UniProtKB/TrEMBL annotation:
<keyword id="KW-0963">Cytoplasm</keyword>
<keyword id="KW-0676">Redox-active center</keyword>
<dbReference type="InterPro" id="IPR011900">
    <property type="entry name" value="GRX_bact"/>
</dbReference>
<feature type="domain" description="Glutaredoxin">
    <location>
        <begin position="4"/>
        <end position="64"/>
    </location>
</feature>
<dbReference type="InterPro" id="IPR036249">
    <property type="entry name" value="Thioredoxin-like_sf"/>
</dbReference>
<keyword id="KW-0249">Electron transport</keyword>
<dbReference type="InterPro" id="IPR014025">
    <property type="entry name" value="Glutaredoxin_subgr"/>
</dbReference>
<dbReference type="InterPro" id="IPR002109">
    <property type="entry name" value="Glutaredoxin"/>
</dbReference>
<comment type="similarity">
    <text>Belongs to the glutaredoxin family.</text>
</comment>
<protein>
    <recommendedName>
        <fullName>Glutaredoxin</fullName>
    </recommendedName>
</protein>
<comment type="function">
    <text>Has a glutathione-disulfide oxidoreductase activity in the presence of NADPH and glutathione reductase. Reduces low molecular weight disulfides and proteins.</text>
</comment>
<keyword id="KW-0813">Transport</keyword>
<dbReference type="Pfam" id="PF00462">
    <property type="entry name" value="Glutaredoxin"/>
</dbReference>
Amino acid sequence: MANVVIYTRMTCGFCVRAKSIFTQKNVDFEEISIDLHPEKRAEMIQRSNGGMTVPQIFIDDQVIGGCDDLMDLHYSQKLDALLIN
């Protein structure tokens, strides 16, 4: 299974939705809360090539983007291929 990392904020509904997609697919993910670890915000921006909003989602170090990008992959049946190593 792929390595999934999600940068989040605790009060972000889009973050909750993105995490629920992975949970429904039984995919483990690492959640990095920029609320609890504000020093990780700069890391998130650098890794995502300037993404300032949350969630920022990465699959095997590939920038996926935010929740809308994840949902596009999910509904176009392309997400599962990214999750399989």
